[in-house]
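Here's what a typical entry looks like (Twitching motility protein PilT):
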Amino acid sequence: TFEAALMAAETGHLVYGTIHASSTTQTFSRIYGLFDQEEVEGVRKILAYQMRAFVYQKLLPTLHEKIHRIPAIEILINDTVVQKFILEGHEGEIRQYLNTIEAIQAGMKDFNLSLVELVEQEYIHMRTAIESSPNVDELMMRLKKLG
C-alpha cells in the first residue's frame, strides 16, 4: 500500500513506486486522494521531506522502423523550491517552476520540453507531439522557435 511505502521512506529505505497520473504535478493530487482529508497534511510533510523525484513518462510512436516506441518524460526533483511549494500546499505552482532556468539546471524537465526534443531529434512526428501535449499553445510556441 502507499502507506507502507511512505513509512519505508521515512525510515530511510529507497522506495520506487508507480501511480497513474497525467503529469508529475498531478501525482500529488492522486496521492492525496488515497488518504482521508485529515491525513493529507501529514502525507504532504512526508512527501516534502522524503520524496526525491517524480518521473512521468508516456510511450509515443516513433518515426523509426526499428524503434516502435520512445518515452517522452517529465522530471520533477524535490529541491528547496519544490519542497516549499509542497509544504505550503501550492503544488499547482510547481508546473510554472518546471520551466525556469533554475529547475532546468537542477535536472528537471517538463513534458513539453521533452516533446520538443523528440521532434527536434526526429524521433516523433510533430502531430504526435501535439496530440500528447498537456499545453498545446505552449508547445507550438516552443516548436516555432525551432523553425
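The chain has one domain: 2-146.

More examples are in the samples folder.
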